[in-house]
Amino acid sequence: LRRAGRFDVTIHVPPPDAEARRAILQLELSKRSTSKRALEPHWLEVFAKEKLEGYTGAEVVAVVQMAAELTRESQEAEIDRQHLLSACERVPPCTLEQCQVHLQHGVPPSPLSLLPSPPPSPADSLWPSPRQYFVISSVLIVLFALVWQLIMHFDVDTFHWLHLPQ
């Protein structure tokens, strides 16, 4: 979003080409435990060229981060080709045109989108205001502390139904 007089020169920065995407992939994967199959130069080159077309550098990094998360979830030790392919499906590229569609048509962005989410509506919140949440939670904490002190003040046998350690 721009307004007149704010920026006199507009510079278009296109997404990185296939070779740059491959270099970013290789750099990011070298920081993580990755299988030899996934680091194979020819496969990385084809993956960067065909699967990551239109991705920005930050989105390529996000794909590697998602692949690492998928690896952890599957309890495997190394990022493999399948993790990268699955991550690519979960992290789509966000072009300017896609962002405009989101804004114009109210399409909810994906969880990994750079678009800000609208603030929650009051109907979505249990507490009408943060102040009310703070006051009520503070009162409850003090109340629980006082009850605990009373329990500990009396003989433990009096409260046998609590099953407190002796």
UniProtKB/TrEMBL annotation:
Keywords recorded for this protein, A-Z: ATP-binding, Membrane, Nucleotide-binding, Transmembrane, Transmembrane helix
Transmembrane region(s): 133-151
Ribosomal protein listed as a keyword: no
UniProt cross-references to InterPro entries, sorted A to Z: AAA_ATPase_domain, P-loop_NTPase
GO terms for MF: ATP binding; ATP hydrolysis activity
Domain of life according to the entry: Eukaryota
Keyword tRNA processing annotated: no
Name of the protein in question: Clp R domain-containing protein
